Amino acid sequence: MDSVNKPLFQNIFKSENEIPEEFKVQEIHQKVYLLNGELVEWKGEVQNIYSPVCIPTENGLQRKLLGSIPNISPKEAMEVLEASVKAYDNGLGEWPTMSVEGRIQCMQKFVYLMIQQRDLIIKLLMWEIGKTLADSTKEFDRTVDYINQTIDALKDLDRESSRFQEAEGTIAQIRRAPLGVVLSMGPFNYPLNEIFTTLIPALIMGNTILFKLPKHGVLAHYPLLNAFKEAFPKGTVNTLYGKGSEIITPIMESGKVNVLAFIGSSKVANGLKKLHPKVNRLRAILSLDAKNAAIVTKNADLNVAVSECILGALSFNGQRCTALKLIFVQKEIAEEFTQKLSAAISALKPGLPWEKDVKVTPLPEVNKPMYLKECIEDALAKGAKVLNENGGFTEESFVFPAVVYPVNSDMKLYHEEQFGPVIPVVPFEDIEEPIDYQVNASHGMQVSIFSEDPQEVSRLIDPFVNLVSRVNINCQAQRGPDVFPFTGRKDSAEGTLSVFDALRSFSIRSLVAAKLTDSNKKLLNTIVREHDSNFLSTDYIF
Fold first, then answer.
1. Which among 6, 120, 393, 486 is least surrounded, fewest beta carbons within 10 Å?
2. 163-165-166-172 Cα dihedral, nearest 10 degrees
3. Does the pLDDT of residue 2 top 90, yes or no?
4. For residue 371, is pLDDT > 80?
5. Residue 317: alpha-carbon gap to chain centroid
């Protein structure tokens, strides 16, 4: 940790004139927020937004100022809530009563307007959260794909629901209806994609949205405010800026939020739910804590294991809920595995997000470098070592990945979700050890198993499918493809997300039923034929 290859790190942060013109960004001082279909001017207190990218100055390295956002008070927050409540109007508003085809057309208009802002949003993702150009581009494009897949999934769902069903002398049409006002709160690590995996399905199902912007990645949404305004009826989407601890509390205490869509920590989620006066009326869709383990046995292909563990542990600097945050390796191969792992990590290129082939970038959370240092020092004090050259090197917002070995249950890194570029490696003798770890863990999202032995893999699959929600074989943990279910056990999640599951998560089955009589047949046929109801319909949406 003390041995640092100075040439590798001496020029991570560049002066303003060294940054290519195509990647420079103008400061954005946002003076508006979206309220009831209007971009309302804000004249009050603001919050400055700084980049993890530092600029050398006479006073040392300083995080670059990117702009500022409104810092609204609880008073304005309640006005935003009321706009969402009014737009929903107990399910009688324009948006919740609109036909499925009408809502799809609005969403298609939003996608069209969103794509026009692609270059700016990608640039802001790089500057705001330190995500590489490739990953920022992937996040934007994947989000657009997700929206289009959601539209297609809703068409399929509507086609399935467009027929009447008969049973026991009763005829009915069963469709999905919205739930009400959705409070959507997302994380900084995927400030566009993760948030939209809840916001978009909630919106297209007819709910109105109270959108709390993430702490980091907030300016990346500024180019989309007008798209929300132009694409959807007034009050359908309203935005919240400011300190969550101050503005979210009165909103939840009002009891007017019907659905909490939250991606973050289980501690915060539990606190939010307890604020609601009628928790039984609150539906929660939550993606929370994770300490995903990898298990590398003596029967693994070590080259595959090393490659996938690096992807799993260090994609976006390990700042993913699906990241591999603890690696169990069988003692017989531990030395060879850690040597290969350390060598591969030492070869990773550090730098700024837009630089070619860069793999390690600055971290957006101001306190994260110090926290990671504390975790490493705790492990060192209890017998571990940092194996790779430059591991744990820190300069302002930048931290180079550290392979820490051997880690044991007395160390913070064994239990705490580090959410950063530190890779704890735990040696084990008996395969029951990683199973016991998962049994006793408070989380249960994913696991990755590395072995070429069919019987060994089988013995691990069977217990782990009942301990986590996804078992990965010889590959990293990850969310995608988006058509696959994404959820977790224990403190890791509540509800299930996928292109299909999310539509169901943010809606409820409602039906119109009547006795199967000639007069009722005539009545229903007339309603359908004349298109008098947006709910009752046999139209086929192409």
1. 6
2. -100
3. no
4. yes
5. 15
